Amino acid sequence: MNGSKGYPNTGRQRVLCIHSFRTSGKIFQQQLQRAGLLEALSDLVEFVFVDAPHPASGPIPRDVRPYFEGPYYEWFTAESVGDRVEFDEAKMKASERFLMALLAQQGPFDGLIGFSQGAAMSGALVALQRSGLRAELSTLRPLRFCILFAGLKSRHPDHLAAFDALSGKVPCPSLHVFGDKDALKNPHCTELADSFRSATVLLHQRGHVIPVLHEPQLAIMRAFIQATASAPEPPPPDTHIPAPRGVVGQDDGAEVVEAASSSACARSQRQGHMLCKL
């Protein structure tokens, strides 16, 4: 197996890639390829791309249709009703069942990579597994990490219950990549990062996209992935002890990334995650 250019071959982790709203697994693959990440991480990651189980039920986003061919799919739909968010429950449950079955039947998987709506689903899946609130997930090997591009915290009641069960801090190493010009940055992207105990944030200067990462930023991402590969196996859900909200986690992933990127990153004392401005 060939390593990516300029990097030694150190073995690969198997990662499920969850695409954004009304796109597809193929489009997500193209987005990561155009950003240079498939090649840059090929020695560390085996990427597995899938389509959501629901065909797109409405207009395709204007930043998608001109640049990527269909078919297009979605994980869930929701709408704001007053101060509430109402989900299509049948669609959400079907997507959860689909992903849980995929993790069980095509696993084991080491981590998740998600973009936008896919990042919301990824964060929710990790929270559901670590909280023990989904028996189907609790029987699987714990996911080691997640990488979330332009993600937002799911407002579905079941997902919020999972985050709350973990005292608002999911005990899983997470890398959050979002743009300073992304309309979702505040509060959504930062809220998701703040919901993980050991979060590292790569803040780029673009909008709601998967950006090209140059060598210093790639080094941070690679160090994060390598740290999770060498970290001890995560404990099963019923044995972890949630950290109090606001306490910075000390697991291996966060420590190695911090050491590798001290010139580019600073620890956020308020939010308990590491911020790396690109």
Account of the protein in words:
- It is a single chain.
- The protein has 278 residues and is an alpha/beta fold.
- 34% of the residues lie in helices and 19% in strands.
- It has nine helices and twelve strands.
- The chain has helices spanning 25-34, 37-40, 89-105, 117-131, 135-138, 157-165, 185-194, 215-230, 252-260; strands at 13-18, 45-49, 54-55, 73-74, 78-81, 84-87, 111-115, 145-149, 174-179, 199-204, 265-267, 274-277.
- The chain has an eight-stranded mixed sheet, sandwiched between helices.
- Helix 4 crosses helix 6 (157-165) and helix 8 (215-230) packs antiparallel against helix 9 (252-260).
- The chain is globular, with a radius of gyration of 17 Å.
- Residues 1-10 and 239-263 have low confidence and may be disordered.
Short descriptors:
278 residues, alpha/beta, eight-stranded mixed β-sheet, 9 helices, 12 strands, AB_hydrolase_fold, Serine hydrolase domain-containing protein, hydrolase
Give the overall pLDDT as a whole number.
Answer: 84
* Global morphology: globular
Q: How do the strands line up in the largest sheet?
A: 2-1-7-8-9-10-12-11
- In N-to-C order, the SSE pattern is EHHEEEEEHEHHEHEHEHHEE
Rg, Cα atoms, Å: 17 Å
Count of strand segments: 12
Largest sheet: number of strands, sense, barrel closure: 8 strands, mixed
Based on secondary structure, the structural category is alpha/beta
Number of helices in the DSSP assignment: 9
Report how far apart the termini are.
Answer: 31 Å
Low-confidence stretches: 1-10, 239-263
